Amino acid sequence: MSVERSEAVFPRMVELRRAIHRRPELAFEEVETAKVIMGELERLGITYEYGGKGGAVIGRIESGGREAPTVALRAELDALPVTENTGLPFASGIPGKMHACGHDGHMSMVLGAAALLKQSPPDGNVLLVFQPAEERGGGARVVMQSGALKGVSAIFAGHVSHYYRVGEIMVSPGAVSAHSDRFTIKIKGRGGHGARPHEAIDAVVIAGMLITNIQTLVSRETNPVHPSVITIGRVEAGTAANVIAENALLEGTIRTTMPEVREQLLRGIERMTRALGECHNASVEVEFSGGYPSVVNTSRETEIAYGAAEKVVSKAGIIGLEHPYLGAEDFSFYLQELPGCYVRFGARIQEDEYLPLHSPEFDINEEVLKVGASFFDQLARDALKSYGKQ
Hints:
The structure is a single chain. The protein has 2 domains: 4-177 and 294-388, 3-Layer(aba) Sandwich (Aminopeptidase), CATH 3.40.630; 179-290, Alpha-Beta Plaits (2-Layer Sandwich), CATH 3.30.70. Helix 4 (103-119) packs across helix 11. It has helices at 4-7, 10-22, 31-44, 103-119, 139-146, 203-214, 216-219, 259-280, 299-313, 331-335, 368-388, and strands at residues 47-50, 57-62, 70-76, 125-131, 154-161, 169-170, 174-175, 179-188, 192-193, 228-237, 243-244, 247-256, 283-290, 296-297, 318-319, 340-346. Helices cover 35% and strands 23% of the residues. The protein is an alpha/beta fold. A hairpin with a 6-residue loop joins strand 1 and strand 2. An 8-stranded mixed beta sheet has the order 1-2-4-3-5-16-6-15, sandwiched between helices. The chain has a 4-stranded antiparallel beta sheet with strand order 10-12-8-13, with helices on one face. The chain has 11 helices and 16 strands.
């Protein structure tokens, strides 16, 4: 594994990652995190722009002039509303907030790559994109709408993962994540005494039927070779043990990888809610809100990323992807307008230990910071060389 160039910046990456980890901030609130990023860019002598609270920090390494190609490397500023339970000496000092998705590591990787690129500038320009609100709100759209990426040839990003070991990088063309949608179902029945159900319309019973029946849209109506998931993550109903609930609320998410399956599930949920409302003489309404589209890597940029990964971890360390992950990622908004590639870095701490993203126990093997910084450094150089030949 060729990560020698990043050895010199590794201690600083660890220091930055831990400092960011201690003070996590949620989507569109990442003011202190942005200050850490800007402080490091200033230390490295890299110019930057900051959009203020809710905005991005955009660093610029310009060594090729206006006519030279420009590539962008992206990292995320935000944390999650999770109470940390790792016991780490640098654990979150803010109750209810935690970097449980590795964004602290991503920022450190891109800053490490920035240090390497600044030391030995490539033949071209590199934008360092530290965006807000990946987890909630689609902060990628803020960056795109700002015009900061105008003239960029391609954009690249990566994510730590316990699916893989340190020294492994997942690189795959095409779709690598799912399309996400959210839904809210509001049930209005008729409240009553728990001992006299015949006088009421029980919203809890209807909610229970929906929770069970909606799952058959995946298990019995969707082709099993087409990955899809419906999860109801929030249920709210009732005020007392002896009162039949008049209202109930269900909130959930839909994950799909094919447009026709997505449409099938959306229409299926509409059909079931309408039918159960009529069956129980209740008002049952569903509202959908679009989430993030699928991340679809473009072919040329995937080839460039593959080549960079091969130089860093060798061909043996490159992992393919048989099916897209059903997680969602707002990097997809960049790829709707720009070519690019999204990879995953193995970050497993122990050989046989898997820690899921968003878990209160989530942590990474910090050796992955070397891999990520080396990869982004090599990727930027290779991409600029490729686009410079056009």
